[in-house]
Design goal:
Elements lengths: L12 H16 L12 E6 L5 H12 L3 E6 H4 L7 H9 L4 E5 L3 H11 L3 E3 L7 H14 L10 E5 L5 H12 L3 E5 L8 H14 L2 E5 L2 H5 L4 E4 L11 H8 L6 H4 L7 E4 L11 H4 L6 H22 L1
Parallel strand pairs: 1-2, 1-3, 3-4, 5-6, 5-8, 6-7, 8-9
Helix pairs in contact: 1-6, 1-13, 2-13, 4-5, 6-7, 6-13, 7-8
The protein binds norvaline.
Organism: Cellulomonas dongxiuzhuiae
InterPro entries: Asp/Orn_carbamoyltranf_P-bd (IPR006132), Asp/Orn_carbamoylTrfase (IPR006130), Asp/Orn_carbamoylTrfase_sf (IPR036901), Asp_carbamoyltransf_Asp/Orn-bd (IPR006131), Orn/put_carbamltrans (IPR002292), OTCase_ArgI (IPR024904)
Protein name: Ornithine carbamoyltransferase
Length: 310
């Protein structure tokens, strides 16, 4: 069966553990496994800006023995010049897997339904599941391994309606985390995602909570994460968003309310002085550079899993 990774709950808790263990193993030995040797080609397509995702996928596919085929989104113009389904039919006949960063989750789902090869979400408006795999790898790296993740208290503060909020809810619940989203009342996560995350958490021993106060969100937690207040595609709303989310800035005073050894995550790019202060981002509790590195290891583990399952 062709397996995809379109949203965080496409991996069961057991499968997520396997992928995270493999990600940690790739940290130790980058050439541990080469499931794309041949080389098998993996198409990587960007309809939005990218740095970490492009570098980590292209590097990772090459290290897996494959050929990273970078498709320029503005040339392919998927869904404009040619339908998503027709693009999927063409790509699926030539490449071993497709990695796509685009806007609508529905387009990614259509690609997966038609391609016949694994499709990976490299960020949509709704989810960014590869980032959360990297974040969980980072927590496992800094704490006691994958087995230590369950029961971790995790606060995400800022825009509760964006892709990172949704992926932390689903991916965190899958790992058995207690996920608290701290966000204003006008930036709520999709209720269907919250309900699905709560259902997963009920089985993994985690929990999900949405609160509207920064202090309540971060009090006593093991991990604090944040993200830009203006996601790609929302640039026109930037000024308004700075006002809406100001009360959720992650600064030293907020971090001091978390556990004294709490780790700080940020998927980057970060805007110092906006969603996070320089003091926190560049401070001793921040593990954001490991987090960025772990995109490589986590995605190699994910691609290995998908290519071997499919
Ligand atoms: N929420 C951000 C994540 C960037 C990696 C965005 O979509 O722009």
């Amino acid at each position: 069966m062709t397996r995809h990774f379109l949203r965080d709950d496409d991996l069961t808790p057991d499968e997520q553990r396997v992928v995270l263990e493999l990600a940690l193993a790739f940290r130790e030995d980058r050439y541990l496994r080469r499931p794309a040797a041949g080389p098998r080609s993996v198409a990587v397509i960007f309809d939005k800006p990218t740095l970490r995702t492009q570098v980590s996928f292209l590097t990772g596919i090459a290290e897996l023995g494959g050929f990273p085929l970078l498709l320029e989104g503005s040339l392919a113009r998927i869904g404009v010049r040619e339908s998503v389904a027709d693009t999927a039919r063409v790509l699926g006949r030539q490449v071993a897997a497709i990695v796509w960063r685009t806007f609508a989750q529905a387009d990614l789902e259509e690609m997966a339904a038609t391609a016949g090869v694994p499709v990976v979400n490299a960020l949509t408006d709704e989810f960014h599941p590869c980032q959360v795999l990297a974040d969980l790898t980072t927590l496992a790296q800094h704490r006691g391994g994958v087995a230590s993740l369950a029961g971790t208290t995790f606060a995400y503060v800022g825009d509760g309606a964006n892709n990172m909020a949704h992926s932390y809810l689903l991916g965190g619940a899958t790992a058995g985390l207690h996920v608290r989203v701290g966000t204003p009342v006008d930036a709520l996560p999709d209720p269907a995602v919250v309900a699905r995350a709560a259902e997963i958490a009920a089985a993994t021993g985690g929990s999900v909570t949405v609160v509207h106060d920064l202090v309540e969100a971060v009090a006593g937690v093991d991990v604090v994460a944040t993200d830009t207040w203006t996601s790609m595609g929302q640039e026109g709303e930037a000024q308004d968003r700075e006002h809406r989310f100001e009360a959720f800035r992650l600064d030293a005073a907020a971090l001091a309310l978390a556990r004294s050894d709490a780790l700080v995550l940020h998927c980057l790019p970060a805007y110092r002085g906006k969603e996070i202060t320089a003091e926190v981002l560049d401070g001793p509790q921040s593990v954001v550079w490991d987090e960025a590195e772990n995109r490589l290891h986590a995605q190699k583990a994910l691609l290995t899993f998908l290519l071997e399952q499919s």
